[in-house]
Each structure stands twice: as structure tokens, then as C-alpha cells.
Amino acid sequence: MAPPGWEGSYHGFHYTPVVRIGDRVIVSGIPAIEGADDEAKIRWAFQQLEAHLKRAGASLEDVVELTSFHVAQDHEEFRRRAAPALKVHREFFKDHYPAWTAVGTTALFSKGAPMEIRAEAIIGSGKRPRSEVPPEPPKAAKP
Q1: Which secondary-structure segment (H or E) carries 18?
Q2: In this structure, is residue 23 part of a structural domain?
Q3: Which residues constitute the domain of residue 76?
Q4: What angle do CA 30, 32, 36 make, to 5 degrees?
Q5: Region annotation Disordered: residue ranges (predicted)?
Q6: Which residues in 98-137 belong to E strands, given as ranges?
Q7: Contact 32/44 with Cβ under 8 angstroms?
Q8: pTM of the prediction?
Q9: Quick one: 48 exposed, middle or buried, by C-beta within 10 A (0-12, 13-18, 19+)?
Q10: In this predicted structure, what is the pLDDT of residue 131?
Q11: Do 4 and 105 form a contact (C-beta atoms < 8 A)?
């Protein structure tokens, strides 16, 4: 299954952009390739993720796991290049936070992409509680 415009992934590169098995949805890696800068490219990738999920009958609320791959040569560059992804992530996941693994790598298949993102979702899980995380402790008052 593929959203319009992504058919070439299947026919040209021999992979399925979105696979649905029962209520489980797996979205293959989406490269951040459209936009004027890294943040815009990453936002575009998240928009594509949303479209891929919708095609399979899921939504961002159903996402239980993300994996992102960031182009970087060392830890400092990785942290700097991951910052736009953290910002965009907050725009798309406002009140539910899926599990997320961020990986640094020296290259991605799509030249010029600062990041690639993949996801797994369980249809309907957005309607159920996700995790048992205690509330953030109050910040200590400064004297």
C-alpha cells in the first residue's frame, strides 16, 4: 500500500511504503527530502508519515514507535542535527509520545536528506492509555 506519488518505491526499489497486518501498521523509512532547510525537510517527512498512516487506516495518535536516522559524523553534530527533529516531533506529537530511537549514521539512501523516519502503529491504540509515566516534578523555587 502506498499514498499517491509513492508507487515508485514499490515498483522501482522493491519495497512497500506501508504494510498493514491486522491492526499493526509498519511505515518504511521516509527520507526528509522536500524543503528549503533541514527543519522544513523534516516537517515534510512527518507530513508524509501522517499520509502513509492515513492510507493504512491509522493516525499519528496510533503510533507506538518511531525510529529516526540522522546524518552526522560525530556526537556533537548528531545532537545539533537532531534538534530540528525534536522541534518538529513536538508539533506532531503534542500529548502522546511514542517510543523513539534516534540513530546517527554517515549516509542515507536519499542524497541530501538530513534524516529518515520510520514508524509502527497499532490502529485504535490512540484511544487507549499508552504509558505509566509519573508527572514531571515541580521545579524548585529560587530564593
Answers
A1: strand 18-21
A2: yes
A3: 7-124
A4: 155
A5: 122-143
A6: 99-105, 115-122
A7: yes
A8: 0.85
A9: buried
A10: 62
A11: no
The cell for 104 is 546517527
- Answer for the pair 1, 16: CB distance below 8 angstroms, yes or no: yes
- CATH number at 77 reads 3.30.1330.40
If you ran DSSP here, which 8-state letter would residue 126 be given? G
Residue type, 65: E
Beta strands 115-122 and 18-21, pairing class: unpaired
Is residue 86, in this structure, part of any structural domain at all? yes
Task: Please give the Cα distance from 87 to 91 (Å, whole number).
Answer: 7
DSSP E strand boundaries for 32-139: 63-71, 99-105, 115-122
Residue of 41, 22, 32 lying closest to 123 (CA atoms): 22
- pLDDT number for residue 75: 93
* Close Cβ partners of 27 (under 8 Å, ≥ 6 residues apart): 17, 18, 49, 52, 53, 56, 118, 119, 120, 121
The low-confidence residues of the chain, meaning pLDDT below 70, are 128-133, 141-143
- Residue 102 domain-assigned? yes
Instruction: For residues 52 and 45, give the distance between their C-alpha atoms in angstroms, rounded to a whole number.
Output: 10
